[in-house]
Amino acid sequence: MTKIEEQRRLRLLEVQNSLGFSQKEFAHALNMSPSHICALETGNRRVTDRLLKMLELTFGANSRWLNTGEGKMFDDFEDARLCRVTENFKKLDTYLQDYIIKQIDFVLEIQDKLDNGTSN
User: Fold this and answer.
1) Enclosing H/E stretch for 62
2) Cβ-contact 16, 26 below 8 angstroms
3) What are the extents of the domains in the chain?
4) At a CB cut-off of 8 Å and minimum separation 6, what does 36 contact?
């Protein structure tokens, strides 16, 4: 494995860890098998340009950082957090998705009341 390939492998691991994904969750988000991700992580498979593009499109990873290590890992960390929420939301059945939406609406109402200094 070349130095560049090793750096790509390590950056792949950094993206996974920064998003807080298990190997299985990371694989699912990228539509890959966990064994494929494992092979990438251990260096038994190479991190390709195609995979780097998938990381960019799926998680908002910064292409310059993925290729060179320069700049921020994510163009906008908020985008990475939103990607994780979206991926997890998709895993829920419709009933639980509706429940989560209602909970978010409820929490937003509370936040609005707190911001406006009102209660009840």
Assistant:
1) none
2) yes
3) 3-92
4) 27, 45
CATH topology of domain 3-92: 434 Repressor (Amino-terminal Domain) (1.10.260)
Token representation of residue 23: 């190997």
Residue 38 CA to residue 40 CA, distance in Å, equals 5
d(CA 36, CA 7): 18
> What pTM was estimated for this model as a whole?
0.64
| Cβ neighbours of residue 8 closer than 8 Å, sequence gap 6 or more | 46, 47, 52, 66, 67
Q: pLDDT tens digits, residue range 65-98?
A: 999 999 989 876 566 677 778 888 888 999 999 9
- Residue found under tokens 């911001």: 115
